[in-house]
């Protein structure tokens, strides 16, 4: 049984979408064009073979006998032409003879007829039929458009009309002209442009591309629902191939797309539709919205993949096969890609693929390139500062913790310092819950009296009471959710800090860890306080720390003790002694910058713990700070004098150091490192006279 192609019924045609029909037509036309192209290539090869044969035999050609010609053309020719060295002498002579006749080049070579076929009248009908060239596949088949059928007594009569076909012959002529132009182009050298002309040409191209980008972007922004397909067209420009403008165009498209997505992305996360939802019939508006959301998410995903690939290629020093962009220019492209990702990280924390952006950005915080690492660090800081609920912060903290552990604590200190910008404070918690709680404006008493009747006022009062209760419930729910997120985030932060304290005590991350502990010490569980203070003291006693690191240790210890730690019965005398002993490490050189941390330590150690500090200790520190004020730069001296003034105001009987007469027994021992036993009450602040 033959496999005949059935004509589709009218019902089936109705069900088939217009897009599918268009695609079928395009595929058909494409096949026809490719077949025509292939045929033209074969023709060209044959012409070249003939030219080659002519050029090899310059001597005059002999006339061939008609019998030989007729005999030769009756034989079946092979599809592929034989090479010249495999031909018989008779065949070669025949080719040479035909080459002299212009008609051989101009006529249709698919025909097997010799030139002089018209002279042969005694051929049979069958032979004539056989000589007629077969119809090539390049001719377009006639397509039918099925119309509404007509019904009469005999039955249903299907109606159809021929579809107008594009003029393929015209296309063939154009292609032939193009081929001829290419041949001419290969023969003639390119016109040499001056640098000025080249620059002008480049400017013109760039202006055209800019206008195109602007037109597409404005069309998308004006009607995102209708023009979502233009987003794809704009994204395709990320693959700009013109080497003169490729770098700038790609950068412009990256930034334009970033701004478009920031503008048109909705304020909620788009989830994929379930099979049941897809099968359900919906309104036109809903269907349009679904199509828009689906298109937006897919284009956003492809855009992020493009940015990721650009950064990866630059990191791996890879070039594309086309080599349109140099390796040097790739760095600039990668920087723009990172900027776009940073902007999207901060602007769209609620939208799809935010976790994917976090996974891309966090490792780049540890990048050798200072510019890229700073961009990423700043973006993460901004995200922490503006994140009220804490979902995004939790995601970033998890990835940073994994990165630090995965790199075996070999990361830049800036990566850990971003934890200091987390919005986790008891004070801010209440304020943030107020920010999150939806604000409802209720009618005032005057407005009610003016606009409502007595009965309406009564109903309104009951309604407002109910609304207030609902709002309070919502706020408390979000507050509980927030507390839960903050607790989880802090747990991960402390686990990271404690791991470094335990396993990597000589790591450059230690100052960042101690600084972080100092900030969040009041939120640490009381159970850890004792162990933590022992670890901090052992770090100071080891002598492996730099001066600044030891100051951070002291600051962390006193922050712990000033918060929940004040219930613990711990005497931090070791920390006081260490600070007193090392105060003279400060001078007008490099350590002058550490004065700020020293003054913070003194504030926590004395001003906030004045009831636990003895007078002897306060006097000793006051005297030593006055001596230190002579050794440091003027700005530091001012800070120290301000601290001395606080000492005078906070502790009673400090003014005895302004008196020349000594009090009590013993003499002052300035070189002794024990503040309790240096007899500071027997000296005077003569340094103030020099500092005047």
From TrEMBL:
Pfam families: CBF, NOC3p. Residues 550-692 form the CCAAT-binding factor domain. The keyword Glycoprotein does not apply. PANTHER family: NUCLEOLAR COMPLEX PROTEIN 3 (PTHR14428), NUCLEOLAR COMPLEX PROTEIN 3 HOMOLOG (PTHR14428:SF5). One of its GO terms (molecular function) is chromatin binding. Residues 445-488 form a coiled coil. It is found in: Nucleus, Nucleolus. The keyword Nucleus applies. Residues 209-303 form the Nucleolar complex-associated protein 3 N-terminal domain. The gene is Noc3l. One of its GO terms (cellular component) is nucleolus. One of its GO terms (biological process) is DNA replication initiation. Keywords: Coiled coil, Nucleus. Belongs to the CBF/MAK21 family. This is Nucleolar complex protein 3 homolog. It comes from Spizella passerina (Chipping sparrow).
